[in-house]
């Protein structure tokens, strides 16, 4: 199950999280959002407690959608120590997402696992 986060709980659950958070901006009307859900759950299962997975309803959380300049849904943000480390958007399907998640996996498996270090730690992730 994915934790649902709102504007009210975003700071506590995401920005102040001691572990990296994969934020899935989605909407009930978004077909691709539903299609990728099993892949996201599989990704979360592989990482266990190392990465947190949360969902944000973009329609109900307009301030967050504006703050993170969403252009399309779904949009995934990997946020660590309050900083966007990776942004995934404009993918066309499961295969695009699978490849992007693999890239995140590779960058994290090559990085030290000290998540509570300084906010400027560079994990080698690239923004889209």
TrEMBL record:
Residues of the Thioredoxin domain:
1-106
Q: Name one GO biological process term.
A: cell redox homeostasis
> Might you report a single GO cellular component term?
cytosol
Superkingdom of this entry's organism?
Bacteria
Checking InterPro entries in the record gives:
Thioredoxin-like_sf, Thioredoxin_domain
According to UniProt, the name of this protein is Thioredoxin
GO molecular function terms noted in the UniProt entry = protein-disulfide reductase activity
Cite the CDD domains for this sequence: TRX_family (cd02947)
Q: Which species is the source of this protein?
A: Komarekiella delphini-convector SJRDD-AB1
Indicate the family of this protein. Belongs to the thioredoxin family.
| Keywords assigned | Redox-active center
The family database entries (Pfam families) matched by this protein are listed as: Thioredoxin
